[in-house]
Amino acid sequence: MLRQRLIRGVDRYGKALGPRGRVLVCQLPLAVMLVGIVLAAPAAWPGLPDSILCRYAFGLQAALLAACVLVPWQRFGPLAPLVIPVLDLVAIGLLRDGTTAGLPDPGVLSVLPVVWISASRLSAPASLSLSFSVPLLAALPWLLADRSAPLAARTAEALLVPLMMFAVSLAMRFARARLRHEQWRIKSKEAELEVLLADSRERERLLNTILDTVDVGIVAVDANGRRLLTNTWQAELEESAAAAPRLTAEPAGQVRPEEEGQLLLTGQDRSTPLPLERRPIRRALAGESFADYLVCFGEAAASRVVSTGARPLKDDAGDFRGAVVVFNEVTGLVDALAAKDEVVSTVSHEFRTPLTSIIGNLDLVLADTEGLDSPVVRRVEVAQRNAERLLALVSDLLMSASAAVHLHPRRTDLAGLVEASLGSAQAHAQASRVCLAMDVQGPLWAHVDPLRISQALDNLVSNAIKYSPDGGSVRVSASAGDGLVRLHVADTGMGMTAADAGRVFTRFFRSPAVRDGSIPGAGLGLSITKAIVEGHGGSISCRTSPGHGSTFTLELPA
C-alpha cells in the first residue's frame, strides 16, 4: 500500500511539472555538482580554470541547463530530452582533463546521466549501449593524450568507468522491469477490487431494496448494542413510538443503548409500560432467542401491536456477536381476535341467563314428579341433561373469551386435588368402561390456585375418558424436582398425529379423527387448561401417537 501511494505521488508530481520542468529536474543534480566544483576551484584546484577542456565542459553544461529551460520539449518526441544526458556524458569526459590540475576523477558523475537514460522509455539495448559507449568515447581523447602510463593501465582505466556505468544501467533496467511488474500487479489488484466493490455495492443496493420492500421491521445489532442495520419500515415504526421528537439526525451505526428505552412500549394490555429488560432488543442483546413476543408501540389510543422475534449472531467459535430482531405488525389480527372474543363473551352471557332459568325450572319439575308419566319424566331429564351440557359449553366460551385468568394461589396439596378429580370422574369412567388409576404420593405441595388446577385436571381427565371410546385406562402420576411439580395424565385411547398434537391447545381445534367419530365437544378444554397452567408460570406439553394414547404433562412451580 505504501509503495502504491509513492508511485501515484511521483506520477502526480511529474504530471504537474510539465515537460520542461521534468527535464530541468533531471538535469539539476549534475548541474549543482558542477557549480560546486566551479565555486571550489579557486581554493582547491587553482589550475582548473586554465584547462581548455574543463572550460568547454563548464560551457557545455551551462548551455545544456539553458536548453532544459528554453527548448519546447513538448513539441518533440518523448525521446528528444535524452540528448541532454548524452551530452552530459560528453561534458564529464571533457572535465576529466581537470585531473591534471589535481581534480579527483569526475567519471563517477556519469552515474547521474546514466540513471536518466536508463529510466527513460529508450529500449534496453539502446540504453545499455549509450551507457557504455558514450563514457568510453568521451574519455578516449584524454586517455590517448596521456602516454606516461603503460598501455594496459590506460586501457583498464579507460574501461573502468564505462563498465561501471553499464552495470548501473543494467541494474536500473532490472529495477524498472520489477517496478513495471509491481505496477501491473497493483493495477490488476485495483481492477479486481473495483469489480468486487461494484459487486458489493450492487448486493448492498439489492439488500436495501429487499429490506425496504418487505412489510416487516428488521434491526441488526452487534454485541455492544451498535445498530448495524435498520430498514425503513422499522425506522417509521420507531418514529411513531418515540417519546420525544428527534431534533438532530444521529450518525448511522452510532451506539445508542438508550434508544429503545426512549420508545413508548407497553405490554399486551396496551397500558402497562414494558420494563427495559423485557424489551425486544434488550432481550436479544442478552442472548435470548424468542418468537411471537407481542409488544405495543405508541400511546394506547393509536398503539400498534407488533409480534417480535430474535435470533443470535455467532462467530465460528460460537461466541455471541450480535442479534437480528424482526418486527411484524399484527394490530389488525389482534383487534379481530379481540372483537371475536367480545362477540363470544356477549353471546355466551346472553345464553347463560335463559339457560339458568331453564335448568332451574326443570329442577323444579323433576323435584315433584307425582302425576307425571315415566316417558314424560325421561324427556324432562334429557332436556335437563342437555341444558346443563349447554350451560357448561357457555361457561367454557366465557372462560376462553376472558382476557386474563384470575388466580388466587396458596399452598395446596396436589395429591388431594388429583384424588378429588378422579372421584368426580368415576361415574363417567365406568359408563365408558375406562379404568382410573392414581400414582401420586401425598402430600404433594405446590403454590397454586386449587380451584383453577382442579378445573385443569378435570378437563384433562374428562378428555382422557372421552377420547378412549373403546375403553382402556387413565393413569394420573406425579413427580417433583428442580423446583417444579409435574403431573402426568396418560391414557390408552385413540391418540393423535404429530400435526394434530401441534395444534391441540388451539381454541376450537378438533382433530379430523374426533370429528369423524362424532365425539362431542367444542375444542375449548385444552386451551383453557393451557391458559390456567401458564397463568401459574408453568407449562403444559403433549406426547402422543395414533392408536397408542396420549400423555399430557403439567409443570407447576413448587
Q: Describe it for me?
A:
With 558 residues, the chain is α+β, with helices and mostly antiparallel strands. Helix content is 54%, strand content 16%. The chain contains 16 helices and 13 strands. The chain has helices at residues 2-44, 52-70, 83-95, 111-118, 124-145, 151-213, 232-240, 280-285, 331-367, 374-401, 414-424, 426-431, 450-466, 498-502, 512-516, 525-535; strands at residues 217-222, 227-230, 265-266, 290-297, 304-314, 320-329, 410-413, 434-439, 445-448, 472-481, 484-491, 539-544, 550-557. The strands form three sheets. A six-stranded antiparallel beta sheet has the order 2-1-6-5-4-3. A five-stranded mixed beta sheet has the order 8-10-11-13-12. Strands 7-9 form a two-stranded antiparallel sheet. α2 packs antiparallel against α3, α3 runs antiparallel to α4 (111-118) and α13 (450-466) packs antiparallel against α16 (525-535). The longest helix has 63 residues, at 151-213. It is rod-shaped, with a radius of gyration of 50 Å. The model is unreliable at 244-258 (pLDDT under 50).
Provide a compact summary of the structure.
By secondary structure, this protein is of the alpha+beta class. 54% of the residues lie in helices and 16% in strands.
Structural class: alpha+beta
- Span between termini: 67 Å
* Rg on CA atoms, Å: 50 Å
Largest sheet properties: 6 strands, antiparallel
Task: Give the total of beta strands.
Answer: 13
Uncertain stretches? 244-258
Helix content: 40-55%
| Alpha plus pi helix count | 16
What is the arithmetic mean of pLDDT? 80
For the largest sheet, list the strands in their spatial order: 2-1-6-5-4-3
